[in-house]
Amino acid sequence: MALLQISEPGQSPDPHQRRIAVGIDLGTTHSLVASVRNGVSECLPDDDGRVILPSVVRFMPGQGRQIGFDAVHSAAADPVNTIASVKRFMGRGLNDIADRSKLPYEFTASEQGMLSIQTVQGPKSPVEVSAEILATLRYRAEDTFNDDLYGAVITVPAYFDDAQRQATKDAAQLAGLNVLRLINEPTAAAIAYGLDNASEGVYAVFDLGGGTFDISILRLTQGVFEVLSTGGDSALGGDDYDQALADAALAKQPGLQVVTAEDKTLLKAAARAAKEALTSKDTSSLTVALSTGPLSVQVSRTDFEQATQALTARCITAVRKALRDAKLAKDDVQGVVMVGGSTRMPQIQQAVADFFGQAPLNNLNPDEVVALGAAIQANQLAGNNAAGELLLLDVIPLSLGIETMGGLVERIIPRNQTIPTAMAQDFTTYQDGQTALALHVVQGERDLVQDCRSLARFELRGIPPMAAGAARIRVTFTVDADGLLSVGAKEQISGVEARIDVKPSYGLSDEQIATMLQESFTTAQADMKARALVEARVDADRMLLATRSALNADGQLLQANERSAIDALMATLQTAVQTEQDAKALEDCTQALAKGTEAFAAERMNHSIQKALAGQNIQTL
Amino acid sequence: MISLQANDFELFDVPVQFAQDRAQLDARWKALQREAHPDRFAAEGAAAQRIAMQWSVRINEAYQRLKDPLKRAAYLCELQGAPVQAENNTAMPAVFLMQQMEWRENLEDTDSAQGLEALANEVAAEQRRVLQELARLLDESKDPAQAVGQVRALMFIERFTQEVDAKLDRLT
């Protein structure tokens, strides 16, 4: 591994040590963690050899928690405190949860509109519940390698909006994970599939999970995974098929009602079992002891298909739209990769085969493929695979815009733009002497603000009084490689500016995360300090390693005096790592090195770009 | 030395002209992103990541503009001192406006997918004609001031195409 080979003698504990990086598929129904070991991506099993962790968390009286299979087994006995499918609530407000009455939970909303679930341990936000699942997988990985994790790639549905992505990142942070990147689930699946099969050409990834549906159209060429378009529905998945089957079964035996939380959980579990049975059989029985009486009916595959016809049609409509966005016809698609446990349903296989006119590809385990792909990307991002040819060029799934007069949306970044991206648009004032401007950031495809998702509101103040229409306010949207948005506004004549990282109304503030982190460690002040120091040392070491690697690769770009300035900063930081007891002072030293190498980093990039163009010219001549 | 301030053509090292080879643009884009994408710097310091982000954004911006004939033409006019100024200058020749009105009436009156597709084909033919005219004005006559008029015409045509597509979507 290039980065560690050049470290100075005695400074790296083990020159062959690899950075432990994992891919985590945080799913609606279940979650997995995978890592690349000996060049092969594999899912990490728990102590009982199971790779799947059910995404279920039970909060028990006192401090106790059950996570995974244990929680699943207690769901029927303690439905109110056993949270399943929490992914459906990520980045969502109370009003977004359409089927609330059919769920066994008691929801509350915070003042900011953030949703919480009432448990025996008090209100729990979806971010906190997800963090429990992520932390469980983090411990599993750390136990497997008997080492700390360097970082993780977490997957999200491609169709997740900014609020849902931000909530996922918050949850990872709360679980103590260093997030190397958020990547889209279908893209992760494409990596695992494409690398396995050495595929080239246009592929569609059809990803129907427990709670979300994604369709991505990708072009694969020589290790480049270029997403051409993406579409889907972040509230459509196997859960909805369960519910539809439960409703159909209930309708067959009139007079019975679902009243209690236990009823809801039991019926859902029975419907899910029947659904799974119908994958290989033509009929199945659905039997539940409801509080209003016993339900016992036969359901056929035809019943199931009819009850879920509308859901399947929604999937195919999204596929059609994604193809149109990619400006491609069905025949351009070489293969359709099936991902997610819900693609096992025969009606889905049939609908996809009918639409594309070809049999879908099912040769990968649909439960594991997303985590496996994420692990491959994590391994490369951590720098373990210096020769890695993998390049992901992903897109944003939904347009981003700003509210203008009359509640209309002015689009600033259209959907399916390759990220990272930045786009700007000029706006102006509508009243004479107007000195402030309220900016409302929204995401979605509709023309009216009320039909789009509200992401954030902020204000630009201190505009000098001018005639209406004279001010020139440039609003810049920047979407980073994680697909997360930040927004800046600047009045061009006066130079007044304001900017925010979009922390969605339904997410957590940085302070909230800090407080939760502190609470979760419930430790004395001294421990907090020690932890801060450890973290500062890790950061400092990371910075030193990165700088040495950069010097080794491109040191010849520096003049002698520039080189000695950087060497001096490195020496100072090296000493500080060993002797400094104050976290803040150590952080300052790290910052100084970061600042001192900025010009060098820019120079290196120039050099790389030049090299890329030179290489191209030779190839294309 | 190439810099963030280089224009799109310089950045992609292609001739400053309207005619472009799409396959070459695609290959350049990927080659440049291979060097500059933030993923390559995920294990490095904040400074390297920030610079990677700036370059990667700039490369994507240039690619978006170069691969789209309308954006490329408008950009070329601007580079050559004839900005399009679409918001301030909407004056179009009478003949063109007549044709637009005809198309719009046609769109309103047509309710069959077949009829709409015929209209879409007609518009696409006109679009191809304007693109050829743009290539002639920009690359042969070197007349960006004249080309600006064609860029505006192309903007109208593109918007109209979207409306036809939207109506087709509603029908199918």
User: What's the Cα radius of gyration of chain B?
Assistant: 20 Å
Biggest beta sheet attributes of chain A: 6 strands, mixed
Counting DSSP E segments of at least 2 residues, the number of strands of chain A comes to: 27
Classify the secondary structure makeup of chain B into a structural class.
mainly alpha
Number of helices of chain A: 16
How many strands, what sense, and barrel or not for the largest sheet of chain B?
Answer: none
List how many beta strands of chain B DSSP finds. Answer: 0
**Percentage of residues assigned to helices of chain B:** over 70%
Give the end-to-end Cα distance of chain B, rounded to a whole number of Å: 52 Å
Termini separation of chain A (Å)? 34 Å
Molecular shape of chain A: globular
> What does the overall shape of chain B look like?
globular
Helix content of chain A: 25-40%
Number of H/I helices of chain B: 7
List the uncertain runs of chain A.
1-16, 520-524
Secondary-structure element pattern of chain B, one letter each = HHHHHHH
Q: Are there runs of chain B of 5+ residues with pLDDT below 50, and where?
A: none
Task: Please provide a written account of the structure.
By secondary structure, chain A is α+β, with helices and mostly antiparallel strands. In chain A, strands 1, 2, 3, 4, 11 and 12 form a six-stranded mixed β-sheet that branches. In chain A, a hairpin with a 3-residue loop joins strand 20 (400-404) and strand 21 (408-413). The two termini of chain A are 34 Å apart. In chain A, 46% of the residues are buried. Chain B has 172 residues and is mostly helical. Chain B contains seven helices and no strands. Chain B has helices at residues 8-12, 22-36, 46-67, 69-79, 94-109, 113-140, 144-171. Chain A binds chain B through residues 3, 19, 151, 180-181, 221, 224, 226, 324, 377, 380-383, 391-393, 417-423, 478, 480-481, 542-543, 546-547, 549-550, 593-595, 597-598, 601-602, 604-606, 608-613, 615-617, 619-620, and chain B through 1-3, 13, 24, 27-28, 30-39, 42-48, 51-53, 55-57, 60-61, 63-64, 169.
